[in-house]
Protein: Nudix hydrolase domain-containing protein
Organism: Streptomyces malaysiensis
Amino acid sequence: MPLDAEWSQARVWAKLHRLVLDELGSRSELDWSRCAIDSVNMRALEQEALAGLLAALERPDEPTSRATLPAHITCSATVIDREQRVLHIVHKASGKLLTPGGGYVENDRTLLAAALREVCEETGLRPDDLCLTPQLLGKALDIDVHDIDANPAKGEPAHQHYDFRYVFYLMPDRAPVLERQDEEVSGARWLGFSDVRSPTLRAKLLAAKAQGLDGQPQPVNASALIHDGQGRYLLHLRDQREGIGLPGCSPCWAVAPAA
């Protein structure tokens, strides 16, 4: 990798690391997930398009708040079924075919959680209808930058959205009947990768398909780190390390050691 590109990635990491530390210090309820960091880091070579996002991360304003102008972060879901089709909804206000979401982070603890909530609200899918992909897990595939017109009725000037797009596989063998959110959604369609409406998302889906993104849910290894908010972690009941737990014993809480 050329030195200038390597330095560029290092700058992105430094900015985002500082953001994470600041957010965790000031808003303990918000858990900025590693997937958000990785997502922007993977896009380090797209800095011309993401220059505004990087500039927003330099400012003290909350980047996910709709009150933060001239741009803020939103989240969308790219749902892929077993026939390698992507769910699109007909946005009632604009008439456009879009992937579900594009909404704001509300009480969600991560950007990924916001994307999951949005797609469930707009389509009636349940969280257990969806799973992460083995290829991407919790990383966003794309960060879309688009302009939003002024809305005098809401007192909002023209601004931009940086939309983090997370990919989910549909778990059922067949797509369930969708219960659309009538206030915002007037229809739904499943489109093949080559017909996805967003050019940047379409290109990245086709590239990811070559790396195995096929719509087929697969079991993956996973671990959970459970913290009680009081300095203790729930430790595995079958861990053989002394002082942690013994086979057959109930899970136990232990104080985290000093760093």
User: Anything to note?
Assistant: The mean pLDDT is 76. The radius of gyration is 20 Å.
